[in-house]
């Protein structure tokens, strides 16, 4: 049996998102950022963890800045405003609980 594959989408300029795996309780997502790209400030009810696989990022969580480098991670509670700026091109691996159903929707052109 083969695992499902998910398309890569670009939610913002210089940002590429791909769901790696998911079920109703948990979702794992790869975000690739170009230098200077931003994950705009937002919030959602899901608890999110982010792990820096490569690159350097400045995160904002509830107005507090954090600089993260490869091997660093951060947990973002549900309904807390957050976003990031990419200081050096790289990849984040994010986990969401429960699953982000909006990430499974087919994007429209």
From TrEMBL:
Under Gene3D superfamilies, the record lists: Jelly Rolls (2.60.120.10)
Domain of life of the organism encoding this protein = Bacteria
All residue ranges annotated as the Cupin type-2 domain in the record: 31-86
Question: Which Pfam families does the entry mention?
Answer: Cupin_2 (PF07883)
Task: Enumerate the SUPFAM superfamilies for this protein.
Answer: RmlC-like cupins
List the CDD domains hit by this protein, alphabetically. Answer: cupin_KdgF
Q: What is this protein called?
A: Cupin domain-containing protein
Please tell me the species this chain comes from.
Answer: Rhizobium straminoryzae
């Amino acid at each position: 049996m083969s695992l499902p594959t998910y398309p890569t989408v670009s939610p913002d300029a210089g940002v590429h998102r791909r769901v790696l795996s998911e079920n109703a309780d948990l979702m794992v997502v790869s975000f690739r950022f170009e230098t200077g790209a931003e994950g705009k400030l937002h919030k959602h009810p899901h608890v999110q963890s982010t792990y820096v696989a490569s690159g350097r990022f400045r995160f904002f969580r509830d107005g507090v800045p954090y600089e993260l480098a490869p091997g660093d991670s951060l947990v973002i509670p549900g309904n807390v405003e957050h976003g990031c700026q990419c200081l050096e091109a790289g990849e984040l691996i994010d986990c969401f609980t429960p699953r982000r159903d909006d990430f499974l929707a087919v994007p429209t052109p």
